[in-house]
């Protein structure tokens, strides 16, 4: 009778393969969760960068509109600081068919030289 109890007790529990499969499933689930979290963090940072870059670009366009003289034709490189972050800004002014107007393009990049936003306007004489 005692031998039968030992045989029953030894068949209870999980085998090593079952434990390894369970650990593999948990590892895959954790890896997927980590990737999803990383994607959310990157998206939030990108959204913040776009908002700050848009503020920089709009400030440059407002400067061009508010100036007493029409902006000079050519490119100007500046740095805009928003929320303790520096953004390289390029302001490109080109002539139009009508000499009373100039096209102003503002491009804001990140520190890795990737374009974040580009905004254009037309500035006229007063």
UniProtKB/TrEMBL annotation:
PTM remark: Cleaved by prepilin peptidase.
Alphabetical keyword list: Cell inner membrane, Cell membrane, Membrane, Methylation, Transmembrane, Transmembrane helix
The keyword Disulfide bond belongs to this UniProt entry's keyword annotation: no
Subcellular locations according to the entry: Cell inner membrane
Highest taxon listed in the record's lineage: Bacteria
Residue span, Type II secretion system protein GspI C-terminal domain: 49-123
Family, as annotated: Belongs to the GSP I family.
Name of the molecule in the record: Type II secretion system protein I
